[in-house]
Amino acid sequence: MGEIITVDDPADPRLHDYTDLTDVELRRRREPAEGLFIAEGEKVIRRAGDAGYGMRSMLLSQKWVDVMRDVIDRSDSPVYVIEPALAEQVTGYHVHRGALASMGRRPLPDPAGVLRTARRVVVLESVNDHTNIGAIFRSAAALGMDAVLLSPDCADPLYRRSVKVSMGAVFSVPYARLETWPKDLTTVQDLGFTVLALTPDERAHTLDETAPHRMDRVALMLGAEGTGLSPRALSAADTWVRIPMSHGVDSLNVGAAAAVAFYAVTAGRPQE
User: Fold this and answer.
1) Angle at the Cα of 202 (from 199 to 208), degrees rounded to 5?
2) DSSP letter assigned to residue 33
3) For FRET with 191, which of 7, 9, 39, 154 sits at 20 to 30 Å CA-CA?
């Protein structure tokens, strides 16, 4: 069982993992370098543990100790109990869910390894908004996508905001980073995937016309909010696809577009 320790000093070095959580640039550098990420809220903490991530510590307000008792009893990690006002001083925001955990990262798998048994994957280019990353992972998990591949400049799926928006779905879908972009798309194609680039361009075929759910192996590629896929990424794709729009709307938010396209890619897929 983890030791329960009451802390009343915001400068206590044992709380280092939880400091300055609202400083996005600092946390983006610190967390991968220090091999940690922050899980926020009871459900997310539980899902991280169930996915096999090791716990470094927990930060709880007193009323959450009983709620998380079973997690505490299964872990050897320390549990720091602090007042809500003190938690706000440490983290930089009001921790209204009352429960945080510092979890240890794992090495990312090789893209080829992630793709070996996959049939339906999503490839993201330059999606650097953590909310969009979280929403895409949640839809990917819910709609049966097998894996996610990230370009080198995509946001971190394990950043606190991404994990929170995904409701822990980032732990359910295997993912990897492609090192050289877009050259490494050839790795995807060499493994038998048809790369479909999602774009609002009128020259693209509609998803219904393309019928990706009938293809053997599909890699659906999406770009960043606003800018969409780069010309290099579009050139590397096998086919351009689009979601038909009505009422003069030119495109959807990337998170919404991803959900629509994932359904088109996986509809009618045999359950495994």
Assistant:
1) 75
2) H
3) 154
* Maximum alpha-carbon separation in the chain: 62
How many angstroms separate the CA atoms of 62 and 99, rounded?
A: 10
Give per-residue pLDDT as tens, 47-90. 999 999 999 999 999 999 999 999 999 999 999 999 999 999 99
Report the alpha-carbon angle 272-142-230, nearest 5: 105
| pLDDT, the chain, mean | 95
Q: How is the beta sheet containing 205-206 ordered, strand by strand? A: 175-177, 147-150, 120-124, 218-222, 194-198, 239-242, 205-206
What's the pTM value of the predicted model, to 2 decimals?
0.93
Give dist(CA 218, CA 122) in Å, integer: 8
Residue 267 in this model has a pLDDT that exceeds 70: yes
